[in-house]
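Next comes a concrete protein, fold included:
___
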Amino acid sequence: MKPRFLFPHYFRKIGYGCFIAVILFAILFKILHPHGFAQELHHDPEPGMKLSHDITALLLLFGLLFIAFSKERTEDEHISLIRLESLQWAVYLNYFLLAVAVIFTNTMELMHIILMSVWAPLAFFIIRFRWMIYRLNQDAGKETDLS
């Protein structure tokens, strides 16, 4: 993956800010609407509710994109390889879980799962990429301790 297609490093902080805002909104929504979004669909939602859901979805989208595809402080070929492998791993895992869901769920549950599979590859990628970078840094720390 060419670094020229990545966001600047500081976008990661913006991404985490967006992601934290979504988490806080989800907690607030759960407190105010304990029966969840499904009940909102059966009643006429307030005009502001659709807008808030749209904003939340966009914040989640941009937050995960910025976290996933921001440059590292040192973006070298090894980091690019880890990024590419993590992306491939995330896609495989997402579609494996989607195939399992198709086999073992009913139609209504499947619709929720398909909706989640839109966001899941980014989340899987971030988790694996951050874990691999953490391990790389740990290994680098051990090498310098042995020197």
